[in-house]
Amino acid sequence: MIRTGLTLTMVLLLALALAGRAVAGGKPFSVEDMLRVAMVADVRLGPDGRRVAFTVTRAAPEIRDGDLYSRIYLAEPGKAGPRPVTPETAQCEKPSFSPDGTRLAYLQQGDDTTEAVLQNLATGQTRRLSRGQGDVLDLAFAPDGKSLAMTIVAESKGAASRNNDDADVEVLDAASGAAGLFLLPLVGHGGPRGLVTDRDVGNFVFSPDGGRIAFETTAPDGPPRGRRVTSASGAPAPGDAANTDIALVDVKTGAVTSLADTDGSEGSPRFSPDGKSVAYVSMAAPGFYFSAARVMVVPAAGGAPRALSETPDARPELLGWSAGGEAVYVREAQGTCAVIWALPVDGGPPRLVSDTPHVVASATLSPAGDAFGLVLADSSLPPEAYVTPADRFAPRAVSSVNKEFAGYRLGRTEVVRWQSTDGTTVEGLYTHPIAPASTPPPLLVELHGGPALVADRQYLGALNYYPLAVFSERGYALFQPNVRGSDGYGPAFRRANVGDWGGADFADLQSGLDALVARKLADPERLGVMGWSYGGYLAAWAIGHTGRFKAASVGAGITNLVSQCGSMDLPDFIPLYFGGEAYERFEALFDRSPLKYAAAIKTPTLFQHGVADERVPFTQSLELYTALSRLGVPTRLAAYPRSGHDVTEPALIRDLMVRNLDWFARYVPAAPGAVVTGMEQPAGDGSSAAGLSGGPPPADGAQPSGS
């Protein structure tokens, strides 16, 4: 935990040169503008370090029933700018250069499966490599470029039973849905050869000589950690937090040997440049959702692993080895930022590599280990792709997909700290409204999910279920607290809400609001709260324990820990946080459930939830919505079709944003003294969600749903 001798008043920490200042005098953000902000990811450098491929994901609001789509762009020396190399409306990801840099392999979503595609960069000709083989999850070129390794989920043979042409029966715990490791020759017409097909294979990497592949896996004879869910087509759905091990497979013989196998979890293997060692990330058992992790190094020939220095947050994302093999690079959350560290192989202390005030939103290492591909972003810096030498951090932009948003105005975002009720120092982000006010502004709280995630300085105008840039434009201040349980502040802080949801985390939220009100940065009579997933849980908990919020929006939130425990797709999640199953900890779980306190809730509450959500089942929203409806509390439940825990269709994302804007405008008016009457929801939001209403019929035309 972070403890200092600061006073109880708010400490304004940081005003970044770019990301912290308001962009004044520009264009105002609208929901439609936010739908056009591109997301950049997976920046990959070619073998010569000059060509760069990256993925750009955009919404397509003009396609009303469409989805987000991802294109792969290629930046080349001597060219005016990066060019797209995949179709505009396809979904493509995970670009991988061939060792000679002449070809690009990537994944493309088809009608029924995800396929591997190979493109000749000189001619643009493409070749589908895995037609009819099943869903390809990942791919990598062999060092000689003559073959491609792929993890493939073969089509299910037993998970679904067809009674007729229209009925599919999904069978839980069916012996199918595992991802096998296959090798596909790129010369000739041979099909993929199975290397590892008797167990589930995760991340994998070739040895420098191409003779072996290190991979993360689960023991084929080990007991299952929980349900495995497969779709009718055999595609895997999310499973339990995997207790993975590291193994090696001989590419010629297919012989598999174990390399790292403990009661904890080992993953993300990376060979050293000389092929003699393997680095990996080891996480302690049993709390995989919140436990500390550490980078280990083990001889590739087998032997005892040794630990490198612990990183500050103890949650390193392993990127790879330095060119000379003297260090490994990791990316990790650090407060409201994310940084790159170098960990010396001799056990020396971590060395900060990323000399930038901005958030390293994602990072990859070049094949030679001498350069990084990055995505940098900040509160007022839209995400773009960058490259930099590894030994001299000097990021150079290679994309400009969001250049138009440099002319848009945003509220000034600052990092804030305050002391919670027990003296623990807590941190968060505060965004000022665009227009300065003579009185304290209305304030909306956004609570992050996880709970072991973090509110970091991502671009305020980025696509979000909660339209932060538009709220700021309309006169609202924003508060994103990193309450106990958050990532980025060390392992003790991350574990601090184990068994204590709604305890110290809620106290952190309350004390943060008190500090903001005391600094006249928030109007105590105009407060709203919103959050998705665990953020939805904490929002629902808050309105059952305080009347200070005038409106709430609960997105895919847990409201009943008892029913959540046995119905989600991670059966070990609640037991690991609360020390037992629902039938063992029934009273304790219900005591920490927002549903138990429904009778105390008077706050008008909007629920939003995907009807196909397996992580937090739709019934979680339905339970508390039904209670509030019967209690006469103003409430709505928007049920999003075809959507799981993440809503990805642009038309539905637009509906999410507009409903949130309308809900808070009605119950937390930006103008002081505004009067709220009735509970009609403004029309004209372009809704395509199914509305469920309590109280008077909705004014937006949605019909109440029967049970």
Automatic annotation (TrEMBL):
<dbReference type="GO" id="GO:0004252">
    <property type="term" value="F:serine-type endopeptidase activity"/>
</dbReference>
<feature type="region of interest" description="Disordered">
    <location>
        <begin position="214"/>
        <end position="240"/>
    </location>
</feature>
<feature type="region of interest" description="Disordered">
    <location>
        <begin position="79"/>
        <end position="98"/>
    </location>
</feature>
<dbReference type="InterPro" id="IPR001375">
    <property type="entry name" value="Peptidase_S9_cat"/>
</dbReference>
<dbReference type="GO" id="GO:0006508">
    <property type="term" value="P:proteolysis"/>
</dbReference>
<dbReference type="Pfam" id="PF07676">
    <property type="entry name" value="PD40"/>
</dbReference>
<keyword id="KW-0645">Protease</keyword>
<feature type="region of interest" description="Disordered">
    <location>
        <begin position="678"/>
        <end position="707"/>
    </location>
</feature>
<feature type="compositionally biased region" description="Low complexity">
    <location>
        <begin position="682"/>
        <end position="691"/>
    </location>
</feature>
<keyword id="KW-0732">Signal</keyword>
<dbReference type="Pfam" id="PF00326">
    <property type="entry name" value="Peptidase_S9"/>
</dbReference>
<protein>
    <submittedName>
        <fullName>Acylaminoacyl-peptidase</fullName>
        <ecNumber>3.4.19.1</ecNumber>
    </submittedName>
</protein>
<keyword id="KW-0720">Serine protease</keyword>
<dbReference type="InterPro" id="IPR011042">
    <property type="entry name" value="6-blade_b-propeller_TolB-like"/>
</dbReference>
<feature type="domain" description="Peptidase S9 prolyl oligopeptidase catalytic">
    <location>
        <begin position="468"/>
        <end position="668"/>
    </location>
</feature>
<dbReference type="InterPro" id="IPR011659">
    <property type="entry name" value="WD40"/>
</dbReference>
<dbReference type="GO" id="GO:0008242">
    <property type="term" value="F:omega peptidase activity"/>
</dbReference>
<feature type="compositionally biased region" description="Low complexity">
    <location>
        <begin position="231"/>
        <end position="240"/>
    </location>
</feature>
<feature type="signal peptide">
    <location>
        <begin position="1"/>
        <end position="24"/>
    </location>
</feature>
<keyword id="KW-0378">Hydrolase</keyword>
<dbReference type="InterPro" id="IPR029058">
    <property type="entry name" value="AB_hydrolase_fold"/>
</dbReference>
